Amino acid sequence: MTSLSPDGRSPATLDLAMVARELRAARDEPPSSSRNFPKEWYGIFARKNGFTKPLSKLQLLSWITFTVDVVLGAIIAVPILLSESRWFGWLISTLWLISTIFLIGSTYTATHCDPGRKSRPLESTRFCLFCKRNVSADAKHCRQCNKCIDDFDHHCEWLNNCVGRENYTAFIFAATSAFVFTTLLVAFSGLEISRYIGDGSEATVYRWKRVYNRADDETLVGLSLTLLLVNLPLTLCTLQLLAFHAFLAYKGLTTYEYIVYKLNGEEAERSRPPQGRRVWNRFKSLPTIMDWFVFIGRSKRSSGEARDGSPPLQVDIESLSSRSDRVTV
């Protein structure tokens, strides 16, 4: 799909030198996605990791939700499950405790990691006009972190950090642990509510009072319902996220590449495979119900910035070097 020049003229054939001049001019302007950073930080400030301020709203929300889940799970779910002295009660409690530990550890690792650190010699490089240095050929520049990320996948608002080669495994562990963590809470709360409805309130309250002498059935039902309503959407969304990344792993794509390919539509079939990976010959995207979360707030073929924090998609810098001396935009 062609685009008009700023003055409204028809598509023109531009020299690579002209493209380079425009990119250098854009380099000196603060990126539109860095509204949280003072303008004087641009070119100097680069986010070290997900704990670097400013923290994102979704990151703070995840911390609050996790804290509430742990508190409610520890004071309600675990004691009631263990009071029944049945093997499944011990099994669910043990799995929930393990998933909690794994979730904390993997989330901390993925957040604390600096995915832009130079950890190995660069065999194949290109020059980043934003970082003003050579980076690996598969690196992308994240404007929210203001640095290049090797094997860039996406910028995760929940971690307030980019996900790339250095922390992708930790990210998948965190998503898997979150899925197990929330699924077990949904299973417990759903079971308790179904017992309250099916077995009768008196029998259920009697079981609760064996754990809490002053148990109030309305309070315990309300807390169980809260666990269910909070964690059921999280379970479904996390499952969808894992399924999406399983699809990407099977096809040999990153999230960023998937977005670029889907936005380019038919042109994706003529795109070069990513560095060091094999991609299927014909691109076929997932239905919208499976990838809606990566396109929130962004319409297809828009000329703005990608939601993942990477530079705009209308110019493929890497492909310029493989074309002739003149390119058509």
Topology at a glance:
Layout lengths: L12 E3 H12 L29 H27 L3 H26 L12 E4 L4 E4 L3 E3 L4 E3 L4 E3 L4 E3 L4 H31 L2 H11 L5 H35 L3 H10 L23 H4 L25 H4 L5 E3 L1
Antiparallel strand pairs: 1-8, 2-3, 4-5, 6-7
Helix pairs in contact: 2-3, 2-4, 2-6, 3-4, 4-5, 4-6
Short description:
It is an enzyme of class 2 (transferase). With 329 residues, the chain is mostly helical.
General description of the model:
The protein is mainly alpha-helical and 329 residues long. It has one domain (15-320). The chain has helices spanning 16-27, 57-83, 87-112, 168-198, 201-211, 217-251, 255-264, 288-291, 317-320; strands at residues 13-15, 125-128, 133-136, 140-142, 147-149, 154-156, 161-163, 326-328. The strands form four sheets. It has a two-stranded antiparallel sheet with strand order 1-8. A two-stranded antiparallel sheet has the order 2-3. A hairpin with a 4-residue loop joins strand 4 and strand 5. The longest helix has 35 residues, at 217-251. The termini are close together. Its EC number is 2.3.1.225.
